[in-house]
Amino acid sequence: MLNVKQLREYVVRPVLRELDAYSEHAEMLLLGTAAQESSFELIHQVGGGPAMGLWQMEPATHSDIVNKYLKYRPELAAKVFRASGCAGLDCNNLIKNLSYACAMARVHYLRVKEPLPVDLEGQAAYYKQHYNTPGGKGTAKQYIQNFKRLVEPNL
After folding, report:
1. CA-CA distance, 27 to 33, in Å (whole number)?
2. How many folded domains does the chain comprise?
């Protein structure tokens, strides 16, 4: 497992600041999402699935973000490039570059009109509704359990 404190300090926080999307709530949501999606261990979905990176984003989701959101927000795309050091919006960067994967996970949440919740239960429900989707296998209960097990004790 990655050192969660270092992931927060050297990846998540700087990326969020570079995107002008930093808040403590955003930071906790991204750490909780990574805890739920990959347990801070996996960079490719187990069992041959398509999800990639610590935030387990699928290539189809990545493409949707690129083609339907970032394409119309070149200033935000430029911030993703600066935050990650990547020159292009390529889904393979989700595996190769922690900062890119983090930035894309945050951009995914930026597409949601609802404000970020401030408490763990709210963030778990927000994750389930907007990241994992209602049809996904993850649950808000699992999110809370993984946050308490993997994030809280390691900060």
Report:
1. 10
2. 1
113-155 pLDDT, tens digit each? 999 999 999 999 999 999 998 788 899 999 999 999 999 999 9
CA dist., res. 155 & res. 92, Å (int): 29
Q: Which of 65, 67, 69, 68 is nearest to 94 (CA)?
A: 65
Residue 139, token pair as written in the block:
């649950």
* φ and ψ of 59, to 5 deg: -55, -35
Instruction: For residue 90, give its domain range.
Output: 4-154
Question: Which string of DSSP letters, residue by residue, matches 19-38?
Answer: TT---HHHHHHHHHHHHHHH
Residue 1 pLDDT exceeds 90: no
- How far apart CA 84 and CA 95 sit, in angstroms, is 12
Decide: 109 and 28 in contact? Cβ < 8 Å.
no
Where residue 140 sits, what CATH number does that domain have?
Answer: 1.10.530
DSSP string covering 67-115: HHTGGG-HHHHHHHHHHH--SS--TTHHHH-HHHHHHHHHHHHHT--SP
Running DSSP on this structure, what letter comes out for residue 117?
A: P
